[in-house]
Amino acid sequence: MPQLQATSISRLAPLFMSEDNGGSREEKVLNDASKTKGRVDPETRKKLLAESIAPWRTLRLFFYASLGSGAALGGFITLAGVLAALSGAKDDVDLNTEVSLMM
Q1: For the chain, what is the radius of gyration of the CA atoms?
Q2: How many angstroms separate the CA atoms of 90 and 100, rounded?
Q3: Residue ranges per domain, the chain?
Q4: In the chain, what is the greatest distance between 2 CA atoms, to the nearest angstrom?
Q5: Which conformational region is residue 56 in: left (phi greater than 0), alpha (psi within -120 to 50 degrees), or beta?
Q6: What predicted TM-score, i.e. pTM, was given to this entire model?
Q7: SS3 of 73, please?
Q8: Binning pLDDT at 50, 70 and 90, where does residue 3 land?
C-alpha cells in the first residue's frame, strides 16, 4: 500500500476541516466514521441474520395462517351442513351419495 506524503495530507485537510470552528466537528465525524467502517448496526445485524436463517419467514407465516383459516372455515361450513343433514333439518343432502363419492 503506498505511503501518503505529508504534503498530500495537508492538501486534503481543508476538505475535511472548516475554517470557522477549527474543524473539530468534521474531525469528530471522520473519526466516528472510520471507527464504524465495515460494521453494521447490531439491530440490523440481528434482522439480517434472522432473514438469512429463515428467508421469507413472515410471508410464509402469513400464507400459512391465511390458508389454514380458509380451510378451517370451509371445514366448519361442511360440518354444519353434515350435522344439519344428520339431524333432519336439511333434507336435500343424501349422505350415502356424498360418502360414496368421496371414496
Answers
A1: 35
A2: 19
A3: 6-39, 45-102
A4: 100
A5: left
A6: 0.47
A7: helix
A8: low
